[in-house]
Write a structure and sequence with these properties.
Layout lengths: L3 E11 L38 H13 L3 E2 L6 E4 L9 E4 L6 E8 L5 E12 L3 E5 L10 E5 L6 E7 L6 H18 L11 E10 L10 E6 L2 H20 L7 E6 L4 E7 L9 E2 L10 H9 L5 H10 L4 H8 L5 H10 L4 H18 L12 H12 L5 H12 L5 H7 L8 H14 L1 H8 L5 H12 L6 H12 L2
Parallel strand pairs: 11-12
Antiparallel strand pairs: 1-9, 1-10, 2-5, 3-4, 3-14, 5-6, 6-9, 7-8, 10-11, 12-13
Helix pairs in contact: 1-4, 2-3, 5-6, 6-8, 7-8, 7-9, 9-10, 12-14, 12-15, 14-15
This protein binds adenosine-5'-diphosphate, magnesium ion and zinc ion.
């Protein structure tokens, strides 16, 4: 029997607003434990929440970038459950009236497809528990520590429809979504720091027409690679079970990165377990057209649009994808360089090639704060075109510019890398070389072409390596009448 995988992803994005979702505390949790807290985010009796307008601005931009409609009157609900890091015993979230509904995100490449977005809703994060002693899990811990700095930090949840069909496509979607969030500038969008987190719902069925199977929710993946591995593992586990005539239990499973398996945990709550009801402390929001239009006008160029624009400039798909990565800032350099007169093809090669290589060598993956400007790059490429520097000298010049030594012209002069492409200067160097090697020159004139290399070498030596070798070669051929 053949099986088809069905996957839906839930993504949590922590917004990088200055303050928390319902109080004025800083939305940063790198401070000393329990210092960014107040009665609201500690859930003290009588404290009242006030929504953060900037968070709503941002969720609207996320929704609009995902082609969603914005609900005119979204409502906050209480999602009730008990946990020590949830001091109110409920999380303020959204239920049947989220801010954004019914969108999609197109993913390209080898795993092309349109992934429907069911909803994008606003909620708040919980505090953070640290279980001390044992293996870090609550069951074996001697005691637990609670830090409420994260309590109430704005969290946006993006829920797809069950439209994803493979582990690789799940990864592609997740990567594209992260790029989008990063380009929107609404979140740090760092997987390693947990500011973007993915949960995968996985089921399998006998074919595209069959009803959906029982799903399992997989958590705890903190890289794109582990997301893909976890989904692939889960598909294979479910296929084996169903193939052996066993049933799939609806549950939450955790990915064990080291062992490479998912493990069953708690039985999954149904939404009725949470006793959702509208939060009586918060009135429905009133989102009018003009607010929505203002947010739409603030949307930057999105990664997919940027890639298409680059491909239209003749950049190949792989380079376009590298350039369009938001966090690296490569696209700014590229765009500025082209604006300053660089050819797109040459600029694309240098940015995705040497610039990335130099960054990597210095342990960086972003141009953030780099002294290299687009104008610099355009200047360097023009120097190469005019043979003012050789290709290898240009790489050295670039490294100098990127370490803050000045403009390409300045670095090339200071490091003595300018090439001599002044015909007059080369002619006189050549004359000296011919005078010193009359026999060789006679043989060259008689057609011994392999001596061209010998003369180029001598001219290079005469000019202490600074002659433009191509130009020197052509002058030698002219003089020898070849
Ligand atoms: P829950 O209330 O359990 O979180 P939802 O219906 O809200 O469930 O769906 C959560 C996610 O699970 C969504 O991304 C949805 O697309 C996905 N999903 C729903 N049913 C299935 C299924 N049978 N197989 C795989 N994914 C599913
Ligand atoms: Mg869920
Ligand atoms: Zn607070």
């Amino acid at each position: 029997m053949s099986w088809e995988a069905v996957i839906g992803l839930e993504t949590h994005v922590e917004l990088s607003t200055r303050s928390k979702m319902f109080c004025g505390c800083p939305a940063r949790f790198d401070a000393a434990p329990n210092t960014n807290v107040c009665p609201v985010c500690l859930g003290l009796p009588g404290a009242l929440p006030v929504p953060n307008r900037e968070a709503i601005n941002r969720i609207m931009r996320i929704g609009l970038a995902l082609n969603c409609s914005i609900a005119p009157r979204p409502v906050f609900h209480r999602k009730n459950y008990f946990y020590a890091d949830l001091p109110k015993n409920y999380q303020i979230s959204q239920f049947d009236l989220p801010v954004c509904v019914d969108g999609y995100l197109d993913v390209g490449g080898d795993h092309e497809g349109r992934v429907g977005i069911e909803r994008v809703h606003q909620e708040e994060d919980t505090g953070k528990s640290t279980h001390v002693g044992g293996d870090g899990r609550i069951t074996a811990a001697a005691y637990s520590l609670l830090d409420f700095n994260r309590s109430g930090v704005p969290l946006v949840e993006i829920v797809t429809r069950p439209d994803i069909r493979s582990a690789a496509q799940a990864r592609t979607y997740a990567q594209e979504l992260r790029l989008l969030v990063e380009a929107l500038g609404v979140s740090d969008a760092k997987l390693e720091e947990g500011s973007i987190r993915f949960d995968a719902n996985v089921s399998i069925r006998t074919g595209p027409e069959a009803p959906l199977g029982t799903k399992v929710e997989v958590k705890n993946m903190n890289s794109f690679r582990s997301l893909e591995r976890a989904v692939a593992y889960e598909i294979q586990r479910q296929t084996a079970r169903l193939g052996a005539g066993q049933r799939i239990v609806m549950e939450t499973r955790h990915w064990d990165e080291e062992v490479g398996v998912t493990r069953g945990g708690r039985v999954k709550e149904g939404s009725s377990d949470y006793r959702y009801f509208p939060d009586p402390d918060l009135v429905p929001m009133d989102i009018d057209r003009s607010w929505e239009e203002k947010m739409a006008a603030l949307l930057p160029e999105l990664p997919a649009q940027r890639r298409t624009r680059y491909e239209d400039l003749g950049i190949d798909a792989a380079q376009a994808a590298t350039l369009a990565g938001a966090g690296s800032h490569l696209h700014r350099l590229f765009d500025d360089a082209v604006r300053s007169g660089a050819g797109p093809a040459q600029a694309g090669n240098w940015v995705t090639g040497e610039v990335v290589a130099i960054l990597r060598r210095s342990g960086k993956d972003s141009l953030e704060g780099s002294p290299l400007s687009g104008a610099h790059l355009a200047e360097l490429l023009a120097m190469i075109r005019k043979s003012a520097v050789s290709a290898s000298a240009a790489r050295e010049v670039l490294a100098g510019v990127m370490s803050g030594e000045g403009s390409p012209g300045e670095v090339a002069a200071a490091r003595d890398l300018l090439q001599i492409s002044d015909t007059g200067v080369l002619e006189s160097a050549l004359a000296a070389v011919i005078a010193a090697n009359p026999d060789e020159f006679a043989r060259l004139r008689n057609g011994e072409r392999k001596l061209i290399g010998f003369f180029v070498g001598r001219v290079m030596r005469e000019t202490r390596g600074k002659a433009d070798p191509k130009l020197a070669g052509s002058l030698i051929r002219d003089r020898a009448g070849l």
